[in-house]
Amino acid sequence: MNTTKATKLAQPTLRFWLLTAAAVAGILLTASLGNWQLNRAAQKEAFQSDIDQQARLPMLDGRSLVMDNSKAANSTAELVPEEVALVHRTVALTGQWLPQHTVFLDNRQMNGHPGFFVLTPLQLQGSSAVVLIQRGWAARNFQERTALPAVDTPTGLVQLQGRVAPAPSKLFELAANTPAQGFSRIRQNLDLQAYTAETGLALTRLTVLQTGPASEGLLREWPAIRSGVEKHYGYAFQWFGLSSLMAFLYVWFQLVRPALRARRNPQSRF
Description:
Layout: H1 3-10, H2 14-56, E1 60-61, H3 69-72, H4 81-84, E2 90-97, E3 103-110, E4 113-124, E5 130-139, E6 157-165, E7 186-187, H5 192-199, E8 207-210, H6 229-264
Parallel strand pairs: 1-2, 3-7, 5-8
Antiparallel strand pairs: 2-4, 2-6, 3-4, 4-5, 6-8
Helix pairs in contact: 2-6
């Protein structure tokens, strides 16, 4: 075989360049996705660090939750920076329960068991302000779904500790309660603004998650706040693994194996 023909046979083909372009694009894409997951992990770690730092700060009292209405901007559901800075802080409250406004949020779980989250407003001592307390979890009667659990609500002044939290998270529901439909003590979700209008109470926009041992017929084994950073490291490992696999397969099938084959058979094509 002459030199010109051998050189022509050794030249990369269009298929080779297409596979090269696809491999490079795939490697860059998967590597960038891995970096994105690492960045998400770093953000979650910073978020977890902020939560832990908030929990270590000195304990607040009820006055700290009472915001100036002009700052709270009650016309919007978004928390203002002053309120966000209080979330996850520990707090000690003294006040009187308003049991007539107790709400039972349905389909809430604790330790894997479905039941109710029980919420009762607390009138702060020496103030007109009211804080909605997420008091704990109670089991429900599945044979009589409208039956309320037995929850003891002490009268007079009570003292409790907890941590500051936004309004309770919402679950999917087909239709929300409206004034035309009437309000039920058992609800799927609670809109804090609507609840404030319904009760006429001077509610703070932040709630308190009551902590401590089980009492008053309620469990308070709230799940620890975790950022879930582990899953991002797991996803990053998968993306980087896929990127490395693609690089290895490309090098083997497009470079190493053709070179070995050409060495064994000099007349074979690239």
